[in-house]
Design a protein that fits this description.
The protein is built from eleven helices and 13 strands. It is α/β, with parallel strands linked by helices. The protein has one domain: Alpha-Beta Barrel (TIM Barrel). Helix 6 links the parallel strand 9 and strand 10. The chain binds zinc ion.
Length: about 300
Amino acid sequence: MPRSVTGQWDAAAPGIVLPHEHLVIDYGQMSGQATPVDDELRARCIRVLRDLRQAGVGTVVDCTPPGYGRDLALLADLSRAGGVSIVASTGSFCEQWHPQPRWVVDASAGELARRFVAELTDETVPCGAIKVATSAGAMTPHEEKLLIAGADAHRQTGAPIVSHTTGGLGLEQLDLFADAGVRASSVLVSHVCSGDEPAEYAIEIARRGAYVGFDRLGHDAHDLDHWAGLVRRLHHEGLAERVLLGHDSVQRFTGPEDIAGHTFSDPTYLVTTFLPALERFGISQEVQRLMTHANPRRWLLAGGATR
Ligand SMILES: [Zn+2]
């Protein structure tokens, strides 16, 4: 069972689980120069969490890894004030827009895994998920090391893995994980079909038993019909049980310009806009509930018991 920032995550507690969101991202953290979180930002995050709670969301997985603005004590405060469980992430990110933190670059895979396990089993504010990532086109050596370390930490703790992709490489990630003894059902491949990847790519990820993250809902890159069409396609292939939905939202982004211009900040969009629209794509309430309730719980619990 993964841990939330306020203790044991309760799979039996009601509500939608959003598997890939962020509250604060700040690349300045890795050089010790993060922009402070002021009262206004804090209030904004609490407001968003309360809106989510009102909309029926019980758990948010915050996928910000250390060095990129993750503040575990802040997340615990926000979770309590907002009334939504938050599962935080250890791990790291890709190198496409910015080098990884020094401590990732300098560490061996074994050293990284030890660090991740320590965060996943911390008694004060534990993490519950392992974030890994690859750049567009090819996996860099440090990214490969990150995936190997993430697999190792997963084997030791059972914590679920969430992997960032840009325009593909999800299947290559799953190949590496299979070699490292990680069952595909413990892995959420994020941002699938956010670029111009064909639907067949999503289908292949799902057929391998991993979770397909259609988790850029609401972003400018693709309209609602794109995402609803993909959901319908996977449902028709008998793969709805592998689909996870989210927004990759963020309330304040401080980092590379290339990303800053493409952020999205309304994680209630799934409930207010996307799910109601799925009706007209022939996706029943039952299938919607599978994707918003049962699937994310199955993913979070796939690794089995943790310490
Ligand atoms: Zn993200």
